[in-house]
Amino acid sequence: MLSAARMSLGRRAFSSSARSNVHVAVLGAAGGIGQPLSLLLKQNPLVTKLTLFDIRGSPGVAADLSHVNSPAEVIGYAPEQDGLKKALKGAEVIIIPAGMPRKPGMTRDDLFNTNASIVRDLAAAAAETAPNARIGIIANPVNSTVPIVAEVFKKAGVYDPKRLFGVTTLDVVRSSTFLSGLAGTAPKDTDVPVVGGHSGATIVPILSQTAEGKKIVEAGGEGLAALVKRIQFGGDEVVKAKDGAGSATLSMAYAGAEFTDAILRALNGEKDVTLCTYVESPLYADKGVTFFSSPVTLGSDGTVAKINPVGALHPTEEKLLEACLPDLAKNIAAGVKFVEANPPQ
Ligand SMILES: NC(=O)C1=CN([C@@H]2O[C@H](COP(=O)(O)OP(=O)(O)OC[C@H]3O[C@@H](n4cnc5c(N)ncnc54)[C@H](O)[C@@H]3O)[C@@H](O)[C@H]2O)C=CC1
Ligand SMILES: O=C([O-])CC(=O)C(=O)O
């Protein structure tokens, strides 16, 4: 079993010996997630340069953020005059929240038609201009958009699976919040690994691997079912409450900042930084699930060093995992097929 530090939540270790040259690019920076995420990254002392790109509004967001008195230089680029390339040039970490959010009644897969091509085109630009960057994909449906980026990078001949991540941190954040709320524990001490993918039944919280969660799993019944459902459908809860105005933005920005911070900390020399993230994975590849989220340990270059297995599961969690795999395999295949049929121009 892995240590409780696996999700790295609430454990910001800002070192005074921070590497002084980490350039982070945010694509989709003027959106509901992009703006607060960029604000949180501007506050991170491990970031020294922050470039913001969006099809609209990023120069304004950058001007605003540049008045915050933290070290990171912030520059916003519009699509004109090769703005995307300029935003990507020299980027070591690229975070992509560009894309349409859900409205009530939609599934994440309903976003595929719009977001697949947005992510494909941004990935093609990244493959050309910043092929060695670490890339975190927030845009939904994550289960498919991450394989899309992989296929685009393969076509460009620059794919390194160790550098590509799907951001599933919000599922870990939600699990920590919901479980600690029930157990009366401190959220920062309540780390729940969440494995699988990022939509409905593909989200598999492993509650039994925490002391508080184990009690709930062993008690079973409606209490367990309600907690698992809330974690798996936390996104729907926000979509419904926002009533047509989008999906989770602030909690996602927080989660995206935590995800990015994990990469920055690994780059800054912190050892054994481990977090659940959706990566190309051998764990269930024999079932067609070539991408899977499990606890991943980062190396000193902020890339995947070790993909850890899911660990011991309670029988109810084994069932959740069984239900996850076929859906995930379909979502991955859809992403691969999309790039085959619609290669980047
Ligand atoms: N991974 C996760 O856990 C989560 C993922 N999401 C997803 O994140 C995405 C963004 O959500 P929001 O920020 O709420 O949406 P939003 O609509 O507020 O912002 C999206 C931004 O992307 C920009 N954009 C669109 N096409 C672009 C392109 N080709 N290049 C650059 N920028 C482009 C838009 O101009 C807009 O500013 C959605 O797909 C949503 O489903 C949302 C919450 C959690
Ligand atoms: O639910 C959505 O569409 C946005 C999302 O991925 C989440 O909040 O987990």
Automatic annotation (TrEMBL):
Alphabetic keyword roster: NAD, Oxidoreductase, Tricarboxylic acid cycle
Domain named Lactate/malate dehydrogenase N-terminal: residues: 23-166
Active site (catalytic residues): 198 (proton acceptor)
Any GO molecular function: L-malate dehydrogenase (NAD+) activity
GO biological process, one term: malate metabolic process
Root EC class: oxidoreductase
Family indicated by similarity: Belongs to the LDH/MDH superfamily. MDH type 1 family.
Record text on subunit structure and interactions: Homodimer.
Entry protein name: Malate dehydrogenase
Organism the protein comes from: Leucosporidium creatinivorum
